[in-house]
Amino acid sequence: MDLNPMQNGTRAVWGGEEDLDVRGVLSSPVVNSVAFSYHDLDEWHEVATGKRNGFIYSRNTNPTVRVLEEKIRILENAEAATSFATGMAAISNTLFTFLGPGRKVVSQKDSYGGTSRMFLDFLPRFNVPVELCETGDHEQMEAAIAGGCDLVYLETPTNPTLKIVDIARLSAASKKAGAIVVVDNTFATPINQHPLMLGADLVIHSATKFLCGHSDAMGGVLAGKADLVRKVFEFREINGASLQADPAYLIARGMKTLELRIERQNASAQRIAEYLQGHARVSEVYYPGLKTHKDHSIARRQMQGFGGILSFSLDGGYDLVKKFLPSLKLVHLAASLGSVSTLAGPPRTTSHVELTEEQRKRLGIPESLIRYSVGIENVEDLIADLDAALKKL
Questions:
Q1: In sequence order, which residues have a C-beta less than 8 Å from that of residue 5 and are 6 or more positions away?
Q2: What is the tens place of the pLDDT at every residue in 122-165?
Q3: Architecture of 259-391 per CATH?
Q4: Count of helices and strands (H, E) across the chain
Q5: Which of 140, 153, 241, 269 is buried deepest, with most CB atoms within 10 A?
Q6: Which helix (H) or strand (E) holds 95?
Q7: Coil, helix or strand at residue 106
Q8: Catalytic annotation, pick one of 112, 153, 287, 372
Q9: Among the residues of 194-306, which ranges form H helices?
Q10: Which residues lie across from 311 on neighbouring strands?
């Protein structure tokens, strides 16, 4: 069945499942076999060397994992996809596949804390040159790219300040320099943004978040050009950061409702951002759907929806955050995002717990910031909950 002309909701449900070995099932099976048996040695060898489709060993991939990989490949309009045990495994394996001593990466200062730690601490240990530019200063990034680099790493919207970078513009600059472009699309999801269609070479997701959607499984995925994905797959299958069948099943199942969830979360986040923007105890709201957001025009151009994540700063310091967050009733105070239930927390315990307060300050992340991941609850109830907690301040 050709899914290419169909819409994302249909592709999310049927992608990867039409060629299952067990035909007629309504739900893809969980295959927990470590290895796969062959009676014909020639066929076994052809599968092992990639000349024929099949499965050899689940550290590489297996039927359940392949369903998830095919779903993300289809939704991202990619040539190929592979998977990992976590989102950070996807990021680190991709970076170490293409970078090494003397091979330079250019990125932005605003990125997820684990990614920032890779750039600030881990890659320099391997003599990998790293240049971090001011997020949103496209001229600075273009100059850094033109100066020579091997990989450009982008995250948009950024975690947790929801800044936007122009994927098409920076991808064009990277092509001139011969650099690979990697985009972390976790916040946007393939429902709201398609980096590959804007010129990127590879797109990464922490599948733990919106793709899974239920906070019950961890994983990471990578999609993009077949030759590049193959290189990362070969690194990962030896490195061993493989996704197992059980979490792959849960993530793939969650993806069947991805479009429905994202549409609800987009609308709710917009309403909540507008409400918070007008509140006296809120000093700033970070959400690309707001017309006052400095990158709103770029977001409108490259996104189909503005996402289910927003951040806001209270008119006070961290002590006010400590008083406000426990007053919320319809929120889990937890270090994750993208779930059916609303999650919230400050960067010092969520996105940037790996960094020091001074490092967060240098990255422009205030201690008064709260990241708020909107669930699928009724938006009127969420606003009432926020209003009640703000009134207690």
A1: none
A2: 999 999 999 999 999 999 999 999 999 999 999 999 999 999 99
A3: Alpha-Beta Complex (3.90)
A4: 16, 12
A5: 153
A6: helix 87-98
A7: strand
A8: 112
A9: 226-239, 245-255, 258-277, 296-302
A10: 286, 371
**Sheet of 220-224: strands edge to edge?**
80-84, 220-224, 202-206, 180-184, 151-155, 105-108, 130-133
Q: Examine the residue annotation and report whether 249 is marked as an active-site residue of this protein.
A: no
Annotated catalytic residue, options 184, 249, 286, 372: 184
Give the H/E segment covering residue 214: none
User: Within the chain, which residue ranges are assigned CATH 3.40.640.10?
Assistant: 8-255
Q: Spot the catalytic one: 66, 104, 209, 261.
A: 209
C-alpha 45/C-alpha 40 separation (Å) is 9
Helices (H), the chain: 8-14, 41-48, 63-75, 87-98, 113-117, 123-125, 138-146, 167-177, 189-192, 226-239, 245-255, 258-277, 296-302, 318-324, 357-362, 379-391
**Cis amide leading into 195 (omega within 30):** no
Residue 47, H or E segment: helix 41-48
Which pLDDT tens digit goes with each residue over 199-237?
A: 999 999 999 999 999 999 999 999 999 999 999 999 999
Closest to 233 measured CA to CA, from 93, 380, 66, 74: 93
Structure tokens at 78: 């990619």
Collapsing DSSP to helix, strand or coil, 350 comes out as coil
How distant is the alpha carbon of residue 236 from its chain centre?
18
Catalytic: which of 59, 117, 169, 271?
Answer: 59
- For this structure, is 112 an active site residue? yes
CATH 3.90.1150.10 domain extents, the chain: 259-391
Q: Please name the residue that has the structure tokens 């190929």.
A: 80
